[in-house]
């Protein structure tokens, strides 16, 4: 088990790093600080952030932490220029809670306020679970994905189209396969 660290100072530096940037998330992809241990934060599949067993109820604080979230391989970290803390993510760190279609582009909004337009740099993918249930995702930034919520996924299916043997959606000049077309018959 990874070492738990006292994060009182770390939390303050995470907040300071998140607040120091201008618009948009800080350039965490440029930061490579030393690993300092684990922080007792879990991001649940439904997008709820849990700290020491208690949901973080302040959306502003969740957004601050989300802005300094980084993925390395299959691990997630909160990073500042001087430290890196591991945390647990049950599925994807974000949830796409709605979308709009305009001029052939599908733009999603997430539970932490990000807006992302599906396209080659922000692909949509669908993974089938062991029970055959689809889990759709969109890449938000640098390997961080949002699970597309059920109502939005159903709406995507309504605007989908068949291309060859595959059913999917189009956005940003790209086609994103969702399921074999034969499975819809």
TrEMBL record:
Highest taxon listed in the record's lineage: Bacteria
Listed InterPro entries: DUF1285, DUF1285_beta_roll_sf, DUF1285_C, DUF1285_N
Ranges where the DUF1285 domain occurs: 26-92, 93-178
Official protein name in the record: Proteophosphoglycan
Organism from which the protein derives: Jannaschia seohaensis
């Amino acid at each position: 088990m990874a070492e738990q660290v006292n994060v009182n100072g770390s939390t303050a530096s995470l907040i300071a790093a998140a607040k120091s940037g201008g618009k948009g998330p800080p350039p965490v992809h440029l930061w490579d600080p030393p690993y300092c241990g684990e922080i007792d934060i879990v991001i649940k599949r439904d997008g709820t952030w849990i700290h020491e067993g208690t949901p973080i109820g302040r959306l502003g604080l969740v957004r601050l932490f989300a802005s300094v979230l980084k993925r390395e391989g299959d691990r997630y970290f909160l990073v500042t220029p001087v430290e890196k803390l591991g945390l647990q993510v049950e599925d994807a760190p974000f949830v796409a809670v709605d979308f709009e279609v305009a001029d052939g582009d599908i733009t999603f909004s997430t539970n932490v306020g990000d807006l992302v337009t599906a396209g080659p740099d922000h692909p949509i993918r669908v993974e089938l679970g062991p029970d055959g249930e689809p889990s759709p995702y969109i890449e938000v930034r640098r390997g961080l994905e949002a699970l597309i919520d059920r109502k939005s996924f159903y709406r995507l299916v309504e605007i989908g189209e068949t291309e060859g043997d595959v059913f999917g959606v189009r956005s940003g000049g790209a086609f994103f396969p969702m399921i074999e077309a034969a499975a819809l018959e």
